[in-house]
Amino acid sequence: MLRIGFVGAGNIAQALAKGFIAAGLTKGEAIIASDPHPESLKKFEKLGAQTLNSNIAVMNQSEVVFLAVKPNIVPLVLSDIKSFVRRDKHLILSAAMGVTLTSIEQMLPPRTKVMRIMPNTPVIVRNGVCVYVCGSAVKEEDEIITRRLLESVGTCDRVPESIMDAVTALSGSGPAYVYTVIEALADGAVRMGIQRDMAYRLATQTVLGAARMVQETKLHPGQLKDKVTSSAGTTAEGLYHIEKHGVRAALIGAIEAATLKSQEINKKFA
């Protein structure tokens, strides 16, 4: 059983920990987390995990260490743990947005095994999207461990670091866009007379079902859209309204804006 540590116990750390436990890869008592915020630690304690305020204790008691802190905190955390990193023991997985592998490796002892990961919050229900980039000292067995962990909570792909900002914008931020779409669909249904609880239920299942259709049929989304759209029908009218009001352009723009923001953060640590 892997001993897993979390430096930072916020939302993404909690989601990963819950996912790993649900997948049977570890147990709560094999997890240790550090964070300065008591409310975050309480959520880890409910999982049966050990919690404390010491990043150093996390290093001493863990083999795989998730760095799950805000980008601006990364230098402080790495300075704190640097002297306690053991190259023969530790695999460090950084989920810090916009902080490059080169930057992290430069702040740690030479040949430290570091990987950069980008999971999204649906890992908590084991339907997340995860990608990773291997650092210069990572070996095949380290990659196998990382894939085993991330695949237990969703899909997992190795990607070049050059697209990490775009991945952050798409799958990292993407759930928020989808939640907004579900909320808007439900609001529209309520406006047309459907009760609120049913509107959310129908909108949620519609999005889930449509996504599964794309995933399982392997058809282009445009093909599936055309199969639903009858001549002069309700779907055609709704699609016309969507195009008229630039919904597609807004979503495309959201990916661009979020990518540029990630790149901006990236430059601060270059």
UniProtKB/TrEMBL annotation:
GO BP annotations listed: L-proline biosynthetic process
Where do the annotations place NADPH binding?
A: 55
Annotated GO CC locations: cytoplasm
One function term, GO molecular function aspect: pyrroline-5-carboxylate reductase activity
Report the EC code(s) recorded for this entry.
Answer: 1.5.1.2
Q: What subcellular compartments does it reside in? A: Cytoplasm
Q: Catalysed reaction(s)? A: L-proline + NAD(+) = (S)-1-pyrroline-5-carboxylate + NADH + 2 H(+); L-proline + NADP(+) = (S)-1-pyrroline-5-carboxylate + NADPH + 2 H(+)
Source organism, top-level taxon: Eukaryota
EC top class, as a word: oxidoreductase
- Gene3D superfamilies of this UniProt entry? NAD(P)-binding Rossmann-like Domain, ProC C-terminal domain-like
SUPFAM superfamilies, per the entry: 6-phosphogluconate dehydrogenase C-terminal domain-like (SSF48179), NAD(P)-binding Rossmann-fold domains (SSF51735)
Q: Where is the Pyrroline-5-carboxylate reductase catalytic N-terminal domain?
A: 3-91
The keyword Oxidoreductase belongs to this UniProt entry's keyword annotation: yes
Pfam families named in the record: F420_oxidored, P5CR_dimer
Question: Which pathway?
Answer: Amino-acid biosynthesis; L-proline biosynthesis; L-proline from L-glutamate 5-semialdehyde: step 1/1
Q: What is its main location?
A: cytoplasm
InterPro entries in the record, alphabetically?
6-PGluconate_DH-like_C_sf (IPR008927), NAD(P)-bd_dom_sf (IPR036291), P5C_Rdtase_cat_N (IPR028939), P5CR_dimer (IPR029036), Pyrroline-COOH_reductase (IPR000304)
Alphabetical UniProt keywords: Amino-acid biosynthesis, Cytoplasm, NADP, Oxidoreductase, Proline biosynthesis
| Binding positions (NADP(+)) | 68-71
Family according to the record: Belongs to the pyrroline-5-carboxylate reductase family.
Xref: PANTHER family: PYRROLINE-5-CARBOXYLATE REDUCTASE
Q: Please identify the protein, giving its name as recorded.
A: Pyrroline-5-carboxylate reductase
What species does this protein belong to? Answer: Diploptera punctata
